[in-house]
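Dear Dr. V.,

Thank you for agreeing to look over these. As mentioned in my earlier message, I'm a first-year student in the group and I'm still getting used to reading structure tokens, so any feedback on how I've presented them would be very welcome. I ran two proteins. I've put each sequence directly above its structure. The first is here:
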Amino acid sequence: MANKILYLPKNRNPNKVEYLCICAHQDDNEIMAMDGVLKGYDSKDFSFALAVTADGGGSARTGKFKDFTDEMMKEIRIKEQEKAAEIGRYNKLYLLGYPSKEIKDKNNEEIVNDYIEIIKELRPKVIYTHSILDKHPTHIGVALKVIEALRRLSKEYMPEEFYGCEVWRGLDWISDDKKVGFDMSNHLDLQKDILNVFESQIAGGKSYTEASIGRRYANATYFQSHSVDSYKLVNYGIDMKELLTNKKLSVKAFALSFVDDLKKEIESNL
């Protein structure tokens, strides 16, 4: 059984949740779904909420964290995610506490049911999760379970928008007409502050702040070759709403359609 925690930040935005991210690990949201965080941070009418699925015990560690046990790392990562929620004024933070092996287990119904409960409770208009084109198996496990949860829900709970976002595979290679660009040009200091909270990961040998902000700059600059930049920083996502409106559509076939589009574009250019 997972050790589930509901955290209500002291600095929370108390308005109705319109944006929800469901991700695998602590800090995934802050890398991939800052669009929702920033919109909730600024709004006087609606807010942002986050559900983190993994317990955080399997992360790489070095420096002052090198001798920490898995149980110690779980506690550290919980505190880091709670601090990020405070800085970002999240409405709610759900820490579901599952080990990665359970997230990757295709037969695990408990996680799907957790997602269903959260979505029914909040009824968000926009849901972000991992891209089905990601290369991290735990991220894919979350994405597939979010899709399954939404497919089981009735229309009254369907989000208006459903996005798969980039973490462990950028989405700059997606055909331009299939990309969704999220403008990250505002609150650069806030974006850095939230990412810097995850010291256990940065000290573990990953410069996530520089990498994430750098990717946003690169996405903005390299989006169009024949026009000036419209935005300073951009996160990419893919629209996955078709997987909800057409429940018979194979997730694998949908994912591979992006590869087919790229192949056709390369063939055309050559």
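The second protein is here, in the same arrangement:
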Amino acid sequence: MDLQLTDRIVLVTGASSGVGLAVTEMLLGEGARVVAVARDVQRLEDAITPLDPDGSRVLRLSADVTDRSAVEAAVTAGAEHFGGLDAVVCNAGRSLMARISDTTDEQIREEMDLKIFGAWNVIRAARSHLAASSVGAVVNTNAILAKQPEAKLAITAAARAALLNLSRTLAEELAPEGIRVNSVNLGLIDTGQWRRRFETYRSDGGALDYDAWSADLAADRGISLGRFGTADEVAFAIVSLLSPRASYITGAHVDVGGGVTRQP
């Protein structure tokens, strides 16, 4: 099926690895052009160059999404380079593994800043460009944690819930401007973060290999499919929502979590 993304211009944050990189690759496969944004521009360059060797279809830019002026500069540069913006994917993020009693006030502020302003700065800066497009769309990468909180991820869960609420509000506010806003909520996804946790497990004396370790973790988390997801599986949901074929979908949230049911 043609997703009608040929020559569409999409800005993706957190594009140097994991889901953001998978989204970028999938968009390129659909014929789109991408403004790829990440903090570490060298890491971004290393990741993107194999996908776009001559630099004709991906503009690589460095920006911290919590820095409003840096985001505005990146959005302006991307729109000027390609002649507009049709969509944005707000994907920058991380998780803070800590209970509330073990979390400092500064860490709380940092998590809220990243989850809320990390999306709002991008959407706010891109708003006029998206409104000028006939297919303006936003997808916020979020987590099932927003609806199924865990005590050991207390502040990340709270920040994720706030972003989910904000996304629904923005869908209503931006609809009159022709901008759709949706969320993709991911569960346990096989990315560098979990690989690093596995290495910690092995260094602490763990005997399982990665497949067995991740399967045990999936079972413990109540994942019906019994495994981690992949970045490509998340990217498919994101890219599908960006497609003009999804033109009647806004204010929705799609779970990509293997049927996780930690709570009723």
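From my reading of the second output: The first strand starts at residue 9 and ends at 13. The chain has two domains: 9-187+230-254, 190-228. Does that match how you would interpret it?

Kind regards,
E.
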